[in-house]
C-alpha cells in the first residue's frame, strides 16, 4: 500500500521562523543610557511596533512625535513596572 502524503502539511506559525526579539531586558537607567547612544528601546507596556529613543533633550517615538521627559512621565509616574522590562527594539 502506498503512503498518502498530507497535502495540508503547513508549518505551524512561529515554528522554524526566527524572530528578532531581544531576550535581554534592561533597567530604566540602562535603557536611558542606550537611548542616549541612539538605540531604539521598547518596553513591555508598549505595543509590538512601538519604540522610543532620545533626541537631544526629548524622547522621540516611532511615529515621529517628540515629548520632553516631563511630558512623557506625567501620566506614567504612578504606574509600577517602568523601572524594568526594557528591551532593544529589533524590528
What would you say about this model in short?
The protein has 91 residues and is an alpha+beta fold.
Give the helix/strand layout:
Blueprint: H1 28-36, E1 41-43, E2 52-55, E3 58-61, E4 66-67, H2 69-74, E5 86-88
Antiparallel strand pairs: 1-5, 2-3, 3-4
Question: Could you explain how this protein is built, in words?
Answer:
- This protein is an alpha+beta fold and 91 residues long.
- It contains 2 helices and 5 strands, in the order αββββαβ.
- The strands form 2 sheets. Strands 2-3-4 form a 3-stranded antiparallel sheet.
- Strand 2 (52-55) and strand 3 form a beta hairpin.
- The chain is globular, with a radius of gyration of 19 Å.
The pLDDT mean sits at 81
Q: Helical amount among residues, as a percent range?
A: 10-25%
Cα Rg: 19 Å
The fraction of residues in strands falls at 15-25%
Strand order of the largest sheet: 2-3-4
- Structure annotation, total helices: 2
The main β sheet shows up as:
3 strands, antiparallel
Please tally the β strands and state the result: 5
Enumerate the spans where pLDDT stays under 50 for 5 or more consecutive residues.
1-21
Oligomer: single chain
Q: First CA to last CA: what distance?
A: 49 Å
Order of helices and strands: HEEEEHE
What gross morphology would you assign? globular
| Class computed from helices, strands and strand pairing | alpha+beta
